[in-house]
Each structure stands twice: as structure tokens, then as C-alpha cells.
Amino acid sequence: MTSRRNQQEAAAQVVEHMTTAVLLLDDQLRVCFINPAAQAMFAVSARQVTGGRLYPASPGARVLERSARHALEQGEAFTERELRVEVSVGRHITVDLAVMPLEHGRVLLELSHLDRRLRISREHSLITQNQATRHLLRGLAHEVKNPLGGLRGAAQLLDRALQDPELREYTRIIIGEADRLRALVNGLLGPSARPNRRQINVHEVLERVRQLIEAEAPEGVTIERDYDPSIPPLLAEFNQLIQATLNIVRNALQAVGDVGRITLRTRTQRQFTIADTVHKLVIRIDVEDTGPGIPAEMMDHIFFPMVTSRAEGTGLGLSIAQTLVSQHGGLIEYCSEPGKTVFTIWLPLEVEHGE
Fold first, then answer.
1. Order of all β-strands in the sheet with 277-289
2. Rounded distance, CA 293 to CA 331, Å?
3. CB 186 within 8 A of CB 231
4. Cβ-contact 62, 55 below 8 angstroms
5. Which helix (H) or strand (E) holds 113?
6. How far is Cα 220 from Cα 255, in angstroms, rounded to an integer?
7. Which domains can be identified in the chain, with CATH numbers?
8. Per-residue pLDDT tens for 121-155?
9. For residues 295 and 337, what is the distance between their CA atoms, to the nearest angstrom?
10. pTM of the predicted structure, to 2 decimals
């Protein structure tokens, strides 16, 4: 009896750590078990759905329940290839679904995320692009340092000459931003330079970015927040993450124009792979906008420097953002369609990275 229990516990541990999504349903299609990969896929928690139906917590559950019911009625296993599933409102993925009826009227569902294979392939391409742009960015950093020092010095002189405290507040903002940019430039210089890291709350970064963007945004643009307050502190360089996120949010602001919505969203995800390394826990930061989307001809090149659809743009914002996130062991990805573009920053929580 003890041996059987040990085998069951070992099997449960294996399923818990699988990167494929696994669900166990009873004959009433109630959830008996859902592993972390399935929780992440459907954006639900085990506590939320165990003992109840996966639908309506996830709109795509009706497709799974139909397949589970068929397996129970026929008493045989089957596989559905390239099944399109709506895992949350408005978010679809493509999966291979394996369905297997078990004893006592239960049915096992295993979903292999096909989009994940495409994501890994694109991830390697992004990493290669990023390595190619670092040399350019380091050269650019050298060129920026001199005029930045002059800007700071002029702001200091102006601060001393002004008597009005309100006007001096503006010069201090200039000095503070110049110092932040100087720290950023120093972080781009030299392959062995390590950023000054500390434990930070990722929402402090997002709130700082939100304040800066709200000062620039037209009245018709709204900025919404959807934060997960349970995210633990992250070991990171505060100014670098501000700059990386600011570049992405500023792009979103330019995309929506005078009227639109930008959403800042945070979540965690377990067992996530970045550059062939499986991380136990990563932070996911989504920057979503309601703009027209990325032109199809630019989608494969947007992280290259000097690539931009705006005549006044430099095409450096996303390249710099990708470099800064990469220095933290993370990655920036995106998906885009008319009316909805989402840039996602992935940051591993458990390992300190540096260059």
C-alpha cells in the first residue's frame, strides 16, 4: 500500500512539473486536477476551478468538455491535431489535444501548445538579433555621453540662477532624468560592466513609467492597470527596467494616437523557457494597446536598430529595450493584430543575470 502511494506521489510530482497542460475531469466534467502548465494556459488557479467546471472560467473549455464527453461515451482515447482554443477572452492558441478515458469515469486531457514551438524558434531569432545590435548600441552610448553631460551642466547653472521654486522643480527634473540616462548609458558600455542591482517591486517601475506617459498622453488616451499584487521582489537595475518599459509604452502611445487605450498588466508564470533555460518562475509584463497593429512587412525586423515606421523615429527604442531586458536574463516578445498589439517582457525571478 505504501509503495503504491509513493508511486502515485511520484507520478503527481512529474505531472506538476510537465510543460504540457494536463487536466483530469470526472464524469460530470468537473476538474479533479489541473497542473501548473494548464493553470498558466487558461489563466486560472487550481483553487478557482478544482471541484467545478472549467467553463465559464475559461471560454474555450466548452471545446475541451465536448472532447472529454466524447471520450467517456466511446470509451476510447483519441487525439485532435491543431485545435484552436480560446483560453481566455480574446486570446486563442493552437494545441494538439490528447484525450484518454480512465477508470471510475474520469478522463485525462493533455494539451501540447503548438504556438510554443513557434515561440521558441522566434526567441532564438530575437536573441541573435540582440547580440548583433549590442555593438552598435555601445558605440552610440559613447556618442551620447558628451552632450548629456553638457545638458546636465546647463540645467545646474539654470537651477542656480532661478529664484522661483516652481521653475527650479523643472530644472531638477532635467537633472534627475540626465542622471538616469547617464546611468543607462554607462550600463550599455563595456561587455563586463555589471548593473547596480537591488530588490525592487516591478510595480514601482510600471508606476514611474505610467506617470511619465500620462504627462505626454493626449486627453483621449486612457492608461489602465491590471497588476498582480502577489508578485515577489525582483533583483534588477531600477533605471534600466524603467527605460526598457518606457520605450515600449511610448511606442504604444504613438500607436494609439489621440484616442485609444493602453493596458499595463503583470502576471507570473511557472516553468517558462528563455534561451533554452527553464525557469521555475518568471514575471510577465504585458503592454497592450488598441492601435492599428504592426505593419506585416516590419514584424520580423522591429527589434533591429533604425527600423521604424515613423519619419521622426530613430528606430532604437525597441533595440535598447531588448538589450536591457536581456541583461536581466529576460526577453521581449510581441503579438499584433489590428486593434490589439501586446508587447510582453519576460523576467526570470530566481536567478541573478549579468554581463
1. 221-226, 260-274, 277-289, 340-348, 331-337
2. 20
3. no
4. yes
5. strand 107-113
6. 13
7. 2-115 (3.30.450.20), 197-355 (3.30.565.10)
8. 555 565 555 555 666 666 667 677 778 888 888 99
9. 9
10. 0.55
